[in-house]
Design brief:
heterodimer; A: mainly alpha; ABC transporter involved in vitamin B12 uptake, BtuC; two-stranded antiparallel sheet; 3% strand; globular; B: ABC transporter involved in vitamin B12 uptake, BtuC; 5 strands; 72% helix; 5% strand
């Protein structure tokens, strides 16, 4: 039974990684940049919900929606102020360093407002735990909601990309930015929309993460952000099913290696798995192989 | 033909001499300030870390600027240097009593270990390109940090004891020396490092990197950076030169790590000093100093280390200001619009000056 418990906790953690990885993957696919600040948007999402529920006493659902709206605005603002001016810069490192600057900025703003000591985040999920197999197996409400949210987001996003005009525009921009703009697609608007969706997802991920691991500090987002990025690369960056597979696999590897191999080495095992995957398939599990042209 | 060659040589020698001269001049000024008592204790404590950051920046510039590959795992190599060098020094404390000699061997060993690991990591990893290489080097850095955190090492009369569980499972005799204590880090290094050695090490690093850049091998490495396919087609061995640059860069970082370890009493492998955060910080030095510009790396490392320290009076706001300055500088230096605007302003100024001059001449 304990094995199944570990697997379920792995899938739950992996679902959170998958939701974060989606934001990374979409932004990378469309804007061709590593958004290092994505992990910190998760932290901002968590803090918005924390402030609204604990100090203003708002109902959790309203707080989550507010947090999503706040993060969406934040994401679009970051893109507009810091990333867009550098889109055609001579070096692609410029925008990477700017993203790092934004990441420091968000962390330090949170540090000034909330201080460095971790806050206890009361779970916003009030669903009673599921009891299976006569109580031998208990699945917490957080886990149920996390997995459900992940499925809903994946299905919704796949439909959005494949069935709507805006989604098709995203695909076109990720394929060839110049050609897309010649076809009359608003490239800047499409990239802004991608950042908006990615940041809203980050807010959701922040709430789910903090509900499952109820401690919140300015550095909460950094490590999950890096791991979600690893998950995105794992599955093939730029691909939605890839982010899902990468996230779930990463969560499973982490949970199982924590349980059976070594608690301290679990991160090392996760990163080693990434290296093995990249050596076998250099563009990730579902990534497209790109032919190099001379 | 001969003349042209001579001129070119002197231009290059001049540039390198300026770089060496700059370091030596700063060293002399600092020494004078120290001996006349004009330097605060805070500043004195910063001197060796400044050398460390400068060496890290110069060696990372070899990977990022000269080889043209983005590495986010540079701190991992210095972590190897720290632990190998520190373990060596602690074990050899009683064997080699001359501190300079012991430190020399420690640096050599640390650099060798980091270089070998850089070579081994490089073989599979350098096949990847661009952002994938960045994420894999970041992963390696985290792995090294994690592995170092579970190592327990002690020494007694029976020799060295090693475990990955805890201190107790080493089963050592009484009076044994605990060298590496897992997450508690490593302590008890002899404090062999000082500013003079730091500057010497920086000069050696500069010598290695500058000479490599201007050698046949260096030109091959830069050819790979500028166009991989073209370089391959003229018969340059891509793997060999990539590995060469990458492992030299790793070895220099390892040497810097040994310097760092012998300047403080306890080293723990945490996210701030050997995780990706530190790798990114070093990358920031390289990018702000100018990618491929060795002198710029040193200047950026020194200024960006001093600025947050100078802002210490502002306490919690200092890193916020740092981040805003970082974003602002990137936008100003790299945004095509800002570059255009700057060029326009300069042209306007020149025009104005020319106008004045012609007016004067007319008078």
């Amino acid at each position: 039974m304990s094995f199944i418990t570990y697997v379920i906790s792995g899938i739950s953690l992996g679902s959170v990684y998958a939701i974060i990885a989606l934001g990374y993957s979409m932004v990378y696919g469309i804007a061709k940049m590593l958004n290092f600040a994505h992990g910190d948007v998760i932290m901002v999402g968590g803090f918005v919900v924390y402030s609204l529920t604990s100090s203003m006493g708002m109902p959790p659902i309203v707080a989550v929606v507010c947090s999503m709206i706040f993060c969406t605005i934040l994401g679009v603002a970051i893109e507009r102020i810091a990333y867009r001016p550098l889109r055609n810069a001579a070096s692609s490192l410029a925008v990477l360093i700017t993203a790092i600057g934004i990441s420091y900025f968000l962390q330090n703003i949170a540090l000034i407002i909330y201080g460095s000591s971790p806050k206890i985040f009361s779970s916003v999920i009030t669903i009673p735990p599921l009891k299976l197999a006569d109580g031998a197996l208990t699945i917490s409400g957080e886990t149920v909601v996390t997995i459900a949210a992940c499925i809903v987001i994946m299905v919704g996003l796949t439909l959005f990309i494949n069935k709507t005009k805006a989604g098709q525009a995203m695909l076109a921009v990720s394929e060839d930015r110049g050609a897309a703009s010649l076809m009359g697609i608003n490239v800047n608007g499409t990239i802004a929309l991608t950042f908006a969706i990615g940041s809203a997802l980050a807010a959701v991920a922040g709430v789910l993460l903090c509900s499952a691991y109820p401690s919140l500090s300015p550095y909460t987002g950094a490590m999950p952000g890096i791991k979600a990025f690893v998950a995105a690369v794992f599955g093939g960056i730029g691909s939605i099913p890839g982010a899902l597979i990468g996230g779930i696999l990463l969560g499973l590897i982490e949970a199982l290696s924590k349980a059976y191999i070594s608690f301290q080495l679990s991160d090392a095992i996760v990163f080693a798995a990434l290296i093995v995957v990249l050596l076998v398939r250099p563009t990730g599990i579902l990534g497209r192989q790109i032919q190099e042209k001379v | 033909m001969e003349d042209a060659k001579k001129k070119k040589m002197t231009a290059y020698t001049k540039q390198t001499m300026i770089t060496y001269g700059m370091v030596i001049a700063v060293y002399i000024i600092c020494e004078i300030c120290m001996h006349t008592g004009k330097m605060s204790n805070q500043m004195k404590g910063l001197l060796v870390p400044l050398c460390y950051y400068a060496i890290m920046a110069v060696s990372l510039n070899l990977t990022v600027g000269i080889l043209g590959e983005l590495s986010l795992g540079h701190a991992g190599f210095s972590c190897i240097g720290v632990f190998v060098g520190a373990v060596f020094s602690i074990c050899m404390k009683d064997v080699i009593t001359v501190s300079y000699l012991r430190f020399f061997f420690a640096i050599l060993l640390g650099a060798l270990a980091a270089g070998v690991i850089g070579f081994l990591i490089g073989i599979p990893v350098l096949r990847l390109r661009g952002d994938y290489l960045a994420i894999v080097t970041l992963a390696f850095c985290e792995i090294i940090k994690n592995v170092v955190n579970i190592i327990y090492l002690g020494k007694d009369s029976n020799g060295l004891h090693f475990s990955t569980k805890d201190m107790m499972s080493l089963g050592m005799e009484e009076g044994a020396i605990e060298i590496v204590k897992g997450p508690q880090g490593i302590s008890g290094m002899p404090s062999d490092a000082n500013f003079t050695i730091g500057v010497l090490l920086l000069l050696i690093t500069l010598f290695v990197v500058l000479n490599l850049t201007h050698s046949r091998d260096g030109r091959a490495i830069m050819a790979i950076r500028d166009n991989l396919i073209a370089a391959e087609s003229v018969g340059i061995n891509i793997t060999k030169y990539k590995l060469m640059a990458f492992s030299i860069s790793a070895a220099l970082a390892g040497a810097a790590g040994v310097l760092y370890a012998h300047n403080i009493s306890i080293v723990k492998a945490a996210t701030n000093n050997f995780g990706y955060n530190m790798s990114i910080l070093i990358l920031v030095f390289v990018v702000l100093g100018g990618i491929g510009n060795i002198r710029g790396s040193i200047i950026a490392a020194v200024i960006l280390t001093l600025v947050p320290e100078m802002l210490r009076g502002l306490q919690q706001y200092r890193l916020l200001i740092y981040s805003v300055v970082l974003i602002g500088m990137m936008l100003l230096n790299w945004s095509p619009k800002a570059i255009e605007w700057k060029a326009g302003m300069i042209a306007k100024l020149k025009k104005g000056r020319n106008k004045k001059q012609t007016e004067k001449q007319a008078d």
